[in-house]
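TA notes, week 10

Several of you asked for a full example with nothing omitted. So below is the full record: structure tokens for the whole chain, then the designed sequence directly under it. When grading your own attempts, check the secondary structure regions first.
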């Protein structure tokens, strides 16, 4: 089954009377279980595309289907529910709740999902173990390094058992070795849990790990190939 289907998606931004075409006629199908790197220079439309796939933003025209459901015109409450159940996000700047501990950050997703506290605790600890942070579970995330925070962000994205994780330049603030192990962590969750990943990056190390590489240029798909 296709997890994502975009059909002729266009997106422009207007700032005062100046228009920028962020995405021009993007059509794309993604199968469940793929591990995709979305590359392209700064300004090529990577973030806009991830936001549209993640239902955080809407196209001006065109259609977005997630698991065969047309999500283009769903009301906001349905979208919030869908994101909580099906999607996980990892951003460039961690987006954690810094006054909470690693464990509390990870548990929070399951709290929103209405999962009981015992299961929340068990699952969160299991995932933190899988990302190598069990010993730091009770540390507040502002007391952690960039690499550790990004591992918490991956743990938080994975713990709700989403079908799809969207990661927007997740290694941008990490040194290359830390960045590489973060991508390897995502690969391991792709393999063990069958989660589909789309990772945007212009880092050659990340691009090397792609099993499918989609290159954007000026809001268009310039290249799309399996590696
Ligand atoms: P990337 O993530 O590849 O750097 P973006 O999706 O952020 O690219 O941006 C694509 C284009 O849309 C760029 O020309 C950018 O300047 C423009 N853009 C992105 N977000 C906005 C916004 N909120 N308002 C106006 N223009 C924007
Ligand atoms: Mg971006």
């Amino acid at each position: 089954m296709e997890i994502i289907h975009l059909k002729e998606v266009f997106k422009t931004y207007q700032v005062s009377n100046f228009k920028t075409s962020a995405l021009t006629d993007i059509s794309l199908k993604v199968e469940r279980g793929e591990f995709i790197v979305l590359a392209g220079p700064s300004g090529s439309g990577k973030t806009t595309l991830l936001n549209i796939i993640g239902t955080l933003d809407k196209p001006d025209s065109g259609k977005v289907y997630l698991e065969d459901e047309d999500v283009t015109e769903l009301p906001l409450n349905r979208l919030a529910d869908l994101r909580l159940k099906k999607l996980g996000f990892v951003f460039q700047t961690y987006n954690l709740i810094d006054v909470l501990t690693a464990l509390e950050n990870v548990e929070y997703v399951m709290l929103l999902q209405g999962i009981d506290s015992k299961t929340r605790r068990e699952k969160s600890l299991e995932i933190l173990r899988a990302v190598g942070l069990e010993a730091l579970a009770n540390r507040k995330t502002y007391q952690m390094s960039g690499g550790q925070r990004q591992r918490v962000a991956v743990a938080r994205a994975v713990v709700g058992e989403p079908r799809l994780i969207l990661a927007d330049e997740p290694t941008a603030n990490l040194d290359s070795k830390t960045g590489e192990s973060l991508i390897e962590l995502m690969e391991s969750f792709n393999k063990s849990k069958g989660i589909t990943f789309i990772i945007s990056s212009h880092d050659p190390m990340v691009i090397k790990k792609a099993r499918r590489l989609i290159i954007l240029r000026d809001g268009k798909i310039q290249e799309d190939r399996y590696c």
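The two ends are 21 Å apart (CA to CA). Use that as a sanity check on your answer.
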